[in-house]
Specification:
Length: about 500
């Protein structure tokens, strides 16, 4: 992907865009893939980096969401399981099957969870991954060595999908680009261009340069997740706020806190939340929380109560309990939940995870909500609606069977950039030369996942990575020091939880 070339296309007034997407998270990138592969002239502008907001901070599951069965949302679960099957097929290098156990510490739980998960399996139909079954207590401990054995009756064993969220976002950006879209990160939309009450384009500013652009398009789509009210207010300053963000954090621990390659799902902690402990890139992800309402921020701060909640619950379910000193990384994301008209307060756990698609009087299309897992279907609905808004002749959506261009970082065992980080210098070079990485944080957080795996070691390697990037981008020593300052400011959000 070539950023300069995409920017030159944005600046070229003779290029007329059919569809312009604001926001380069899962939702916006999914729309770009869909629109470009239907043959529309497509542009996507992302203010920060691709997936820098919520889309790099998920639990990294491509799943039906077992917990939604409890709320009776069978349709949402079936839709998600269908998308799970498609993603396993269309992005096999990035989306893989993952086995789970749901431990039973009361005798009836095995039957209760077993029947729910059998239904889950049935809903997947012929896109199922593997079958659900019962394991004895010893078989369960054989799969998850650090699980608490005392009082364990056994478990329900099932399968779901796991992925690398920020890398899938890059695969989607590349796929859209290869289908002719102009996709540009670090390019923020500042204003909507309007004529006779209709949105006819956007004014945008390069966040890593000085240039500003006015870009005209037949349809503008607001896919800015938790920020979508801010774009709606650019359209109509009186617009009612519809997003109720809920914060979820994860902590990253050594593999020994799980033991094995099977994940653990606790469907209901004592306050009714779901808890996951998941093997990921040789570590364990423990999450998540559900705290709301919270302010909308690009880099939300993990709160100490949230960290304490996760550590305390890990202590209940695992033999060797983690402490604050064991945390390797911590990350927080905001769920872009859409308020139903009747919800005024802050009960985010009861708001549906399915998406909302609206068209303003000005023709601004807004898509919000949903999940990573369902991005493709959300994109299909959005582009089909955009065809009506733009008065285009309708074209078939081809993304259900469209492979995504996934070339993976090496995750090498030898010659790595630093002892515990599974990446090579080639990966850094490719991030800058082919994957539009502009900042040190783009490289260390999303092209590679270094900061998500080992924050302390990422800080140590940062100066060398910044100097290498400066060489490739033609930047000065001053740029290196500015990048290091910015990188360290971002990491300071996590400082209380990461031992120096
Ligand atoms: C803790 C947590 C765990 C989750 N786990 C899972 C999971 O395991 N599986 C799953 O399927 N889903 C999961 N989700 C849900 C999923 O991550 C989100 O639904 C999805 O990432 C939302 O993507 P988005 O593109 O709508 O929003 P975002 O990722 O927030 O993208 C919106 C983008 O718009 C950009 N933007 C904002 N303003 C402007 C502007 N003016 N100009 C240009 N760009 C702008 C932002 O910078 C941002 O990058 C989880 C969510 C959370 C919070």
């Amino acid at each position: 992907m070539n950023r300069a070339e995409s920017i030159a296309r944005l600046a070229d007034k003779s290029e007329e865009w059919d569809i312009l997407i604001v926001g380069g998270g899962a939702t916006g990138l999914g729309i770009a893939v869909d629109a470009a592969s239907r043959g529309y002239r497509t542009a996507l502008l992302e203010k920060a980096d691709f997936a820098e907001s919520t889309s790099s901070k998920s639990t990294k599951l491509i799943h039906g969401g077992v917990r939604y069965l409890r709320g009776g949302e069978v349709g949402l679960v079936r839709e998600s399981l269908r998308e799970r099957g498609r993603l396993l097929r269309n992005a096999p290098a990035l989306v893989k099957p993952l086995s789970f156990v749901v431990p039973a510490y009361r005798w009836y739980e095995q039957f209760f969870y077993g029947s729910g998960l059998t239904l889950y399996d049935l809903l997947a139909g012929d896109l199922g991954i593997g079958s659900t079954g019962h394991l004895s207590d010893l078989e369960t401990i054989g799969k998850v060595q650090n699980l608490r054995g005392k009082g364990l009756y056994g478990s329900t064993f099932y399968w779901d999908g796991q992925f690398d969220d920020a890398r899938l976002a890059i695969a989607m950006a590349r796929t859209a680009y290869e289908h002719g879209a102009a996709v540009v990160n670090h390019m923020g939309v500042e204003r909507l261009l309007k004529e006779k009450g209709r949105v006819v384009g956007v004014a945008a500013k390069n966040q890593v340069g000085e240039d500003e652009f006015e870009i005209r398009a037949k349809v503008v789509i607001n896919a800015t997740g938790v920020f979508s009210d801010s774009i709606r207010k650019m359209d109509d300053p009186e617009a009612e706020e519809r997003i109720a963000p809920s914060q979820g954090i994860h902590i990253v621990l050594d593999q020994s806190f799980l033991g094995g390659e099977t994940a653990v799902m606790i469907p209901s902690t004592d306050d009714g939340r779901v808890l996951f402990a998941i093997p990921w890139k040789g570590r364990v992800l423990l999450g998540t929380t559900d705290t709301g309402p919270v302010p909308v921020e690009l880099h939300p701060k993990p709160e100490s109560e949230e960290v304490a909640y996760l550590l305390e619950h890990a202590g209940r379910y695992f033999e060797k309990a983690p402490g604050v000193g064991d945390i390797k990384a911590v990350f927080a994301g905001l769920r872009p939940l859409v308020k139903p008209a009747s919800v005024a307060g802050g009960d985010t756990a009861s708001i549906s995870r399915s998406h909302s698609l609206t068209v303003g009087e000005s023709n601004l299309v807004t898509i919000a909500g949903g999940k990573w897992t369902t991005y493709r279907e959300m994109a299909e609905d959005t582009v089909t609606l955009a065809e009506r808004v733009g008065d285009f002749e309708s074209r078939a959506c081809i993304t259900a069977d469209l492979p995504l261009l996934c070339e993976e970082p090496s995750e090498a065992k030898a010659e790595t950039i630093s002892p515990s980080l599974p990446y090579r210098w080639d990966d850094i070079d490719r991030a800058v030369e082919q994957e539009m990485a502009q900042t040190l944080d783009d490289v260390l957080s999303r092209r590679t996942r270094c900061t998500f795996l080992e924050t302390k070691e990422s800080k140590e390697i940062a100066p060398e990575v910044a100097r290498r990037m400066a060489g490739l981008l033609g930047k000065s020593d001053e740029w290196v020091s500015e990048e290091l300052t910015r990188f360290s400011e971002l990491r300071s959000l996590e400082t209380p939880y990461i031992p120096e």
